[in-house]
Design a protein that fits this description.
alpha+beta; two-stranded antiparallel ribbon; elongated
Length: 233
């Protein structure tokens, strides 16, 4: 059963999931009040298998409790964190597997992915949302560049809409500035808020190529649509 890209994620009902033969056949399958649990793992070419227990909640949240050794206390990991804990990276849907019969089956090939909900997983870990540096937008009238802070979803939306508008002007800025206000000096524009370095010109810590803070479900632009359809959490 393959999930269509444009299909809304199904809302998990544990009893309903129990009725799905392929899920019920997964090793370690256990049904609880608000989630279904199965054994999972991630294989490293040199280090071997790291095993754990994947819980799929009714709101589409995926969490993994690691069981790679008796002393490991890693709990409530995201799939990406479990993948990294296993010294793998790049595509957790392909690298994390469950056991059906004698076969290790990647999550992307199982019905479990029909229940994954990106919004639920992002919302459950708000501190893991990517940091965004300040950006500038040029006024269509006075041609001055105006700074946008991108610390909240509302600020990100204001910047997103400003970039999309060919007629954006200073008076549209959320801080209600006007074209008469002075533009920041070149030296003042250099600090962009990066936590790694105040004069950073762009690094993996502050440059975001898409997350739920700066992409929007109610926006029909190609950037948002492509991200929400194809994002790898």
């Amino acid at each position: 059963m393959v999930r269509r890209k444009n299909a809304a994620p199904r809302r998990l009902n544990p009893v309903e999931m129990f009725d799905e033969p392929e899920i019920a056949q997964m090793k370690g399958h256990k049904i609880e009040r608000d989630y279904v649990e199965v054994e999972c793992g991630c294989t490293h070419g040199r280090l071997g298998d790291s095993c754990g227990f994947l819980r799929v909640y009714e709101n589409g949240l995926f969490q993994i409790n690691c069981n790679c050794n008796s002393g490991c206390q890693k709990e409530n990991l995201t799939p990406t964190e479990f993948e990294r804990h296993s010294d793998k990276s790049g595509n957790w849907k392909r690298h994390i597997w469950v056991t059906i019969g004698e076969n290790k089956v990647p999550l992307e090939e199982t019905p479990l992915m029909n229940y994954y909900d990106l919004a639920s997983n992002e919302a459950n870990h708000p501190t893991r949302l990517r940091f965004h540096r300040d950006e500038f937008v040029r006024c269509s009238r006075c041609k001055k560049e105006r700074r946008f802070h991108l610390r909240s979803k509302e600020e990100c939306r204001a910047h997103h809409d400003a970039v999309a508008s060919k007629r954006w002007k200073c008076s549209d800025h959320p801080h209600k500035i006007t074209c008469k206000d002075a533009e920041e000096r070149a030296a003042s524009k250099r600090p962009r808020g990066c936590k790694r370095s105040p004069i950073c010109q762009g690094c993996p810590k502050c440059v975001c190529f898409g997350c739920l803070k700066c992409r929007f479900f109610d926006c029909g632009c190609r950037t948002c649509v492509d991200f929400l359809e194809n994002v790898e959490p």
